[in-house]
Every structure is written in C-alpha cells, then in structure tokens.
Amino acid sequence: MQPDPEKLLSYYERMQLIRLFEEKLAELFASGLLGGTSHFCIGQEAAAVGLLAAAKDTDWVVSNHRGHGHLLARGLDPARVMAELLGRKSGYCGGRGGSQHMCSMEDHFLGTNGITGGGIPIGTGAAFALKYQNSDNVAIVFFGDGASNQGTFHESLNMASLWSLPVLYVCENNRYGMSMPVERACAQPRISARAAAYGMDAAEADGGSLLEVLQAGTEALKVVREKQRPFLLELHCYRHCGHSKNDPRVYRSRDEESRMQELDCLKQCENMLLQRGLGSEAIAQARERARLSIELAAKEALKAPYADSDYAKGGVYA
Amino acid sequence: MPEEKTQYFYSQAVNQALDEELARDENVFLLGEDIGQYGGAFGVTRGLFEKYGHKRLIETPISENSFTGLAVGAAMMGLRPVVEIMFMDFIALALDQLLNSAGKLHYMYDAQVSVPLVLRTPGGAKGGYGPSHSQMLSSLLLGIPGLKIVAPSTPRQAKGMLKAAIRDDNPVVFIENKRLYPTKGELPEGEYTLPLDKAELLSPGKDITLISYSAMSLVCLAIKEAVLSTGLDLEVLDLLSLQPLDQKSIFASVRKTGRVLIVEEACKTGGVGAEVAALIAEHCLDALEAPIMRVAAADAPIPSSLELEKYVLPQNDDILRAIKALRDY
Hints:
Largest sheet of chain B: 7 strands, mixed
Strand order of the largest sheet of chain A: 1-2-3-7-6
Helix content of chain A: 40-55%
Shape of chain B: globular
CATH class of the largest domain in chain B: Alpha Beta
Structural class of chain A: alpha/beta
Oligomer: heterodimer
Order of helices and strands of chain B: EHEHEHEHHEEHEEEEHEEHEHEHH
CATH superfamily of the largest domain in chain B: Thiamin diphosphate (ThDP)-binding fold, Pyr/PP domains
Number of domains of chain A: 1
Order of helices and strands of chain A: HHEHHHEHEEEHEHEHHHH
Number of domains of chain B: 2
Low-confidence stretches of chain B: none
CATH topology of the largest domain in chain B: Rossmann fold
Largest sheet of chain A: 5 strands, parallel
Number of helices of chain B: 11
Shape of chain A: globular
Structural class of chain B: alpha/beta
CATH superfamily of chain A: Thiamin diphosphate (ThDP)-binding fold, Pyr/PP domains
CATH class of chain A: Alpha Beta
Helix content of chain B: 25-40%
Distance between the termini of chain B: 47 Å
Strand content of chain B: 15-25%
CATH architecture of chain A: 3-Layer(aba) Sandwich
Number of strands of chain A: 7
C-alpha cells in the first residue's frame, strides 16, 4: 500500500498535533493550570496515527493510560480533549474522566483506562459483541509492554483465540514500564512471541516509522477482519518523555535518550516526506496548522466552565 | 381438597429466570465456568445449554477477571451478559473489573455508556467447604458506588429479581446462597419481575424487628415461629437489596417496634449490619427503646471442620440470646 503524499502529509500533521498537544500540557502543568497527573506519548505518535489510519473509522478503539495520541489520532476534537484534562464541563466526559478515563462513543472510542491492562478484556469483550452482532467492524486494543505482564493480557489473548474474536492487540513496547526496563520485567522480552502460546498470529514493526506502522497495521487488520481471528502486533517505540509528569528518568542515560532522539518518529516522517517530493515549506505549513489548532484548543478549554456539585455527585447509576 | 401448588427449588427459580430472559432478549447471554452441559457447579444452569447452545452459553476458561472484563466490554456494546462466579470467594479474582470498570464506567464516561451486566454468585457456607469456598462477602461490595447488590432469600424473590436485574441498565451483583439452592417455595403464575430496591416484610410482628438477608432471613422466620409460644411477636424484614438499602422500610419497622436485631452471615466488622445500624442511629434514635444489636459471623475465616464452622457462623442460640437481651432491656 502506497498512500499518496497528501495523505501522508495529513498523517504527519496529525502526529505534530499530538506532539504539540503534549507539549502544551507540559506547559500547563508547569504553570499550575493543570492538576493531577498525565502520561505523555511523546515519541510514540507514529504508532497511534499509523495504526488508526490503517483502521476503519467504525472499528472500536480501547486505549490505556497513555491515550492522548490515540484520542487525537482517532480524530477527537483537541479542544474537548484538552477541556476534559482541565476538568471542564465541555470535555468529552464532563471532567469526570480526565486523561485516563476518556471515552467518545460517537467516535467509536471505548475509552482510555487507568488500570494497567484493564482495557484488554474490555476490548476483547467489544470484539465478542461485534462477532455476536455479525458486525464487519473489529476491536483494536492499545496497551504497553508493562501491561503484557498482567493476567488480563494472557487471559484475554487465550479467550480471543479460543473463540476467534476479531480483535487486534497493539502492544506499544516503549521499552519501559514506568522505570522498569522490559528486559527486567518480561522473561520473554519479545512481547510478540507470547502470542504463540495462545495459537495466535503476531508481527513486529518499527513504531517510529509511520510507513511501517501503516503497513503492519493494514496487514494485521486484514487478518483480523477477513479471517475473524485475533492478532498481536508489537510496535517498537520509545517515549522521549518520562513515564508521567514528575519522572526524573534516573533509570536511563541521557546518552541513550539523545541517540533515540535521532530516530524520533517526527524526524523520520519529515525525511520520508522530503524523499517523496514534498517541499519543506509544505511540511512547515502542516506544522503551523497543528500549532494553531493546539493554541486555539488550549485557549478555548481554559475558558470553559466547570460542572457543578450535583453533576459531581450524581449520575452514578444509569 | 384444594390442589396443592407446585413447589420449586431456589435453583430452579434462578434457572427459570435465566431461561425466560434468554428467550425474551437475544442480547442476553450467560458466561461462566462449567455452565454448559455440566450445568454449573450447583446445577443452576442445567438444561439451558441444550436449549440455547454455544452462542448464548459461553463456557469460559478459569479467568475470572478477564471474563468479567469481557462481559463489561460486551455490555458497553449493547449486550446483556449474565456472569456466573462459581463461589462468592472467587469474586476477589474479578474485583478489578467490578470495581474499576463495571461500577465506574457509566459515571466516568459521562453516561455515554451503561453496563447492563449481572454477576451471579453463591455466597455463604454450606457446611465444610472451608475458608476459600464459604464466605458471604456482601459487605465487601457495599463500598463500590455504581453497583446494585441484591440477595434474595426465597425462590419467588430470586426469580422476579433476577429477571429485573437482567433488564436493569446497571451492573447488578446477584448474591445467591449455596444453602438456599435446595430450599423450596411457590412461584407466581406467568411473567413477573420484582423491584431491585425494596425490602420485604416477610412476617409482621410488634415486639422486636429482625433485619436480615439471604439465608439468614429464613433462619429469622424459623426463630419467629420458635418463640411465638413465649408470647414474643417478632417482625422479620428481609432486606433483599443491600445497595441501595430500602431505608423507608427499615425505619418504618424500627419505629413500629423500637427494638432491632440485625442478623447476617457476613463478618460483623464492616458488615451490612454495621451500615444498617448506623442508618438507624442517624435517623431513628428517638424511637429506640433498646440498643441496636447485631448477630453476625465472627471476624475470622470460615474453618473447614463442621465442628469449628459453627463457632464462627451465627447460630440460632446467638440469635435467641440477643432477642432475650432486647426483650429484657
């Protein structure tokens, strides 16, 4: 599959949008306007954008604690995502959910999830429902290397394979579960190899390369959709930022970080676009559009009102 | 001679409710361990597999947390899963998905989703099942907003409430009881459901209110009969719903008798009885003629030995002693 350059440019713009969104959040944290915690996906933008570009808009997405990229890659309104993070009424969940608990059913986005590995059975259940309802759509579940050590990962993959559920498990292996290197947490550090234990097909791809993710995602989703079989796709990623906003990153060297910066997915993407004949001006314009969009989103979100006490205490039951 | 009405086992009543709801709504499906041809560990789903097949009766691997989570995901997508957890003690293995997903999603996703899920599980001791297969963990779940919790004690209640639970748009924990499965009762003719938030006055009386739920409600009824000849007229209130508690019915009974004994099979500390007692103290102190009393399990695991089990679980003598103390206060 060779997407046309304009399409690729739009993916690049989406990646920039995510990067700038996260950087804006860091700014808001620093200035005390944003509370709580947040897990940035800086460095992992190609994984979110490439994978969801390969999916249908009607496929269902389940995300994890590091979900801003998935939300924006799915096309949610950055102003409303930002408003949710700022706890405002206009946010996707009215301020009840925040970063790790954000859902948009109209976008077929079943939610980010604050429990590591908690979304894996939920996405598996979505796939179960899609099969039950004879739908053409599939479920896509994002999680990290850390979640692959939860029982839910193993239990869910087992059931999905037993029952041939249409679900794509996407492991964004960013090398660290918080501070824990994957080699010290996983007896088999190749996460994709774990699929064999459940009789499931798997593949690996460079999560830093938009084109590789697009291709691997397209192929994996073809298996899931056409064969109605689950699939595990491991994307090798690197988060340039810390685990969360307060992470001094003592567990890895600045040397490693600067080496990885050279392989940053946005840089890779820019080079790829230049090679395909897109001018640096077009790239700069895309970046500027993304910047303006984020500036506007932040401005709008910061002005938005909060919900009230009745809203905070009510709505527990349907 | 009037014709005697058919008596049904509690387990049959649950089975009928499942059968009727499976037939009524194709979005309803059952999920759990050994619930197919085997019929479930206590035979509750017997015959349903033959009738509804693999699509509607999903026999799972032993993966409680993930099949509960799977049910949550399916419920978000519009299905109505009924999960069976074989013993209530095993709910610990599914607790993350109950607490962090089922109970929270409707609220935290701002009503964009609902989780119409029923989790059926038998709590309580049956005699000799031991520490990991005997506990009544009702109170463990009280602190989880977003769940409804019910614990019916008769076949009639079980059938009507399970049908209502399956139709409810919220996650409902439906507490059955191993000791109740072989008990019998009449069932109303035809289609019926019962509310999920109402207590039932099993037997009116005027001297002392006994508040209970699940199998202990039947024990309280038997105690009422046993003390009748001594001139004591006990009122027996069956909570049925533990979340929410039917405060109106509780307060009405307390105001009528002025004396309250709460009886349950869960541990005394932090029990359902503690919550009920606190509510009565908050709202009905002026009506009380004696301290609120509680009879519950000791704060200990349930020992396997039948001889030892009775020291931990509430016994008839404990209840009778408490009644006497209330009478004489």
